[in-house]
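Sat 14:20. Reprocessing the chain from the morning session after the first attempt stalled halfway. Input below, unchanged.
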Amino acid sequence: MRETKLRKPESLLCQAAIYEFFDDVIPNQVCTSKAFEKWREKAEAENPDILCFTEEAICYPQLHPFAEDDYPDEVIHGEFSYPVYYQLEPGEPQDGLTFGCSLSYLRDLPDWLGEWLVMGFLKEKVHLLLKGLPKELRIACQPHEKRAEAFVSSTTPSGDLIDTLSLYLTRDLGRIIEPTNFNLEALPPHLKPSYWVGDDDGKEVASGQDLAALRQRLETKLAEWFDEQSSTWEQRGLKHFPKDKLPSEVTIQQTPGYPALVDEGKTVGVRCFSDNDSAQTAHRLGLVRLAELRLKDQVNHVRNPFPLDALSKSLLPFLGRAGKHNLAHLVALTIDTALGGTETNAPKIRDAESFDERVIPLRGELFDHAQAVAKIVGLVIEHYQNVSQQVEDQRSGLYSESILDIDRQLEDLFTPGFLLRGWAPRLKQYPRYFKAMGARMTRMLSAPPNKDLQKLERILPFERAYRERLTDWDSKPLETPMALRAFGWQLQEFRVAVFAPEIGTAAKVSEKRLEKALEGL
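Finished this time. Tokens:
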């Protein structure tokens, strides 16, 4: 195994040293197997270790000492350990390192952990990455071997390897080294990690080099396993808050779980989710349903009719492709706001007492909350109407390609379930987005079409990547992962920064920030 770890087949053991060891221990007259067994029985009775040898005794003396810690049989991260398998089969897919992981631990295996391999392999990997840099940067990093050794000895594996190496070299050399300067494809196969996933009985479930693809392929199996393990949390048909407090997180078979209320239509239930994003969305919708059951008369008073102005009321059903649900979502938005929901988190209500403290006062306050929400929605619709009229006026003119892009932006802002995608805090940003669209069109119409299209080129790569990732969530928009939602809002802010910088953005945004966010999706 040591030769396999060092990738030096038949290079460690000295056959002559082995011969000399046994020649010294075994008497000359022992020259048959029968005589050897008779001698061994007596010799081991007096000295059980007589035929045991040390590594130093049988290996070539000129070899450097073998550092066990550089070639571990398992890698530990947090509370979990992942076995490491070494293969020496050049040209075969399994050549190099394979990280083992049980299905139940798969979600907790960091994407970056395998990139660092083990310390015994890392120096070679970094050395080759430096040698593969563009010529000017490659020269600046010389001597490569010493610089690779310095990086490995001074860095603790954590986070993306290439990002860490780029930052280290930038600081060390005093010049910018970008992650894109490294050629990962040129690395030999044994420096690219593989992954093996097994079930609780140790049987293989899947294997491969693309960890993200493995997770996606096993998503259904993982969900089934988690549902089975977390079934003790399941409750159904509730019309009141559960008797026992719902913890925000539990551990199930060493895997984090997130209990939450779920909306069942006429009742609520309890379920344990495997990710916090899904739990937050489910819990806030469950709280809304439970509040509706408690405040039936007040909710009916708000719903019929909702306190919108006449224009907003007439246009509400036509916003987005699922406009028929907009009124119900508007009521849910009002209740969520009244309970204390934020853009990314459900109201912090986890027990019956806290629920009562929030809900009982709403008997006299819910309509006021509805009026505040109606004011926001009315402002959104007013700005939308202005922009949509400008769009229609220019649809078939010289600027049609830019207009199609604004159509895409509007489609994203009014995607099915848009009122509950970012909840009230994000909805308040819509008027600013519409102002930016109006400023864009004013500027666009006073210049040749290519001016706006040049700016659009900065947007399109991110727009395409975003829409590709949204495809899996078209049928369940409210289950879209928070990170993907956040990227969509970042993209909206980037549009403001590119087309109408005078309007201002809610947070810093740039191509680099968007690229970084994409890597995490």
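Residues 19 and 58 are 9 Å apart (CA to CA).
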